[in-house]
UniProtKB/TrEMBL annotation:
InterPro entries: Polyketide_cyclase/dehydratase (IPR019587), START-like_dom_sf (IPR023393)
UniProt-recorded name of the protein: Cyclase
The organism's place on the tree of life at top rank: Bacteria
Any coiled-coil regions, as ranges: none
């Protein structure tokens, strides 16, 4: 069984605002760094992504892969690998926990990666940790800078449209 890596961060926003950024895949290239393209390939009956194609460029690792998403309630999303050139498996989850009356959110990101090329477990876990930390930092900055504006609850984007 593969080992996973996880980390948490506190975001100064309600869980809904955090999930709005997490679920806005076309905007991932604006805040994730490694994701250069993101395309939603299929949606569920609520309009949430079920499959997403991602083009990654993380320096030495360049890959195009497709992930399947499962939405569990309003505070959790899981994903698993459908296809990839470099990866054997990629399983992850974002879990959101409301704090301070719902105005802050603890975000936990868990990730398990298995690559097709041989790699020491220690190196793989370090890579997972870097991916997680960058993703959480980017998510926090995006949400707290108003990147969640234009959500279904506001009805308008940051330009008032």
């Amino acid at each position: 069984m593969a080992e996973h890596t996880s980390s948490s961060i506190t975001v100064d926003a309600a869980p809904e605002a955090v999930m709005n950024v997490i679920s806005d895949f076309p905007r991932y290239p604006e805040w994730t760094g490694e994701v250069k393209e993101a395309e939603v390939l299929g949606e569920d009956e609520r309009g949430r992504a079920e499959q997403v194609r991602l083009l990654l460029d993380a320096g030495a690792i360049k890959d195009e892969h497709t992930l399947a998403y499962e939405w569990i309630g309003e505070h959790e999303v899981r994903w698993s690998l459908v296809k990839s050139q470099m990866l054997r498996s990629l399983d992850g989850v974002y879990r959101l926990a409301p704090l301070a009356g719902g105005e802050r959110t603890e975000v936990t990101y868990q990730l398990t990666v298995d690559v097709k090329i041989p790699m020491l477990g220690m190196i793989k876990r370090k890579a997972e940790k870097v991916i997680i930390d960058r993703a959480l930092d980017g998510l926090k900055k995006r949400v707290e800078s108003g990147g969640a504006q234009g959500s279904a609850t506001s009805g308008t984007d940051k330009d008032g449209n």
